[in-house]
Amino acid sequence: MIVRIDSLTFRYPNGTTALDEVSFSVAAGERVAIVGSNGAGKSTLARHLVGIERPASGTIEIAGRRADGLSIAELARTVGFVFQNPDDQLHAASVTKEVEFGPRNLRFPSARRKELVESALRRTGLAQTRDAHPHHLSLGERKRVALAAVLAMDTPVVVLDEPTTGQDHASVVLLGKLVDDLGADGRTVLAITHDMDFCAEHFDRVILLEDGGISWDGPVDRWLAQAADTAGQAFELPQMTRLGRRLGWEGSVSTVTGFVERLAPGAGPAPVVSTAP
User: Quick check: 261 pLDDT over 80?
Assistant: First the structure.
């Protein structure tokens, strides 16, 4: 297991318990979405993976090493963290310098550093804005710069905090392909998200946090199927799931591919949709 968390408990200085006896493991190459309502402990959990927060009790292992014995700089060699607000992360005078910072700080050889930077710029659609100042870009572009900076560090684990917020459709499509490609390359992706369409399309597993504890951990499709009656309390179900229910379909359809397959010949009778005004 690349990530192993056992009985993690965290309390804020005022005594509020944010995480209570949280335990789970994540294998190399898994794509895991961490979901839940605001205040459930999602971002607090993610910050533990890079050492920004330290547990009151319990243990965290990253690639077989106890995180409590590692500095933030040491953890950064294994876990790349993309903040929800890119302005908390960006500091360099150009996109290229921002993306170069991580691999340079990790003392990668020059040839490898150049290759990683060019790949990260290309994969995030930023090759044409390499000389721009990051703070002159739009929010969506700045988020992609922060992502490129993490990709260039070539960490086996990538953590994304609300990656689709502020992104247009084209950027979300690009981001989804990146998540799929990272998983195919054997890299582990954990994403904190309220975007159920993005979750359904690109993640294998979901962990639901409620009141600082795990109330569900399993395959995304199974979770969406059983959550249909209660999910609206904290988040909105995927568009395809909602459309399927409006059409009277039984079972759970959560992705565009699944929806198209449901309409395919041999999949059963097509729904009858009224065209009346």
Answer: no
What is the distance between the alpha carbons of residues 90 and 46, in angstroms, rounded to a whole number?
A: 19
Q: Return residue ranges of the chain for CATH 3.40.50.300.
A: 3-78+155-263
Cβ atoms within 10 A of the Cβ of 115, count?
15
Each residue's pLDDT tens digit, 151-176: 999 999 999 999 998 888 999 999 99
Report the pLDDT averaged over residues 8-36.
94
3-78+155-263 folds as Rossmann fold (3.40.50)
In this prediction, residues 116-141 reach a mean pLDDT of 94
Measure the CA–CA gap between 125 and 120, rounded to whole angstroms.
9
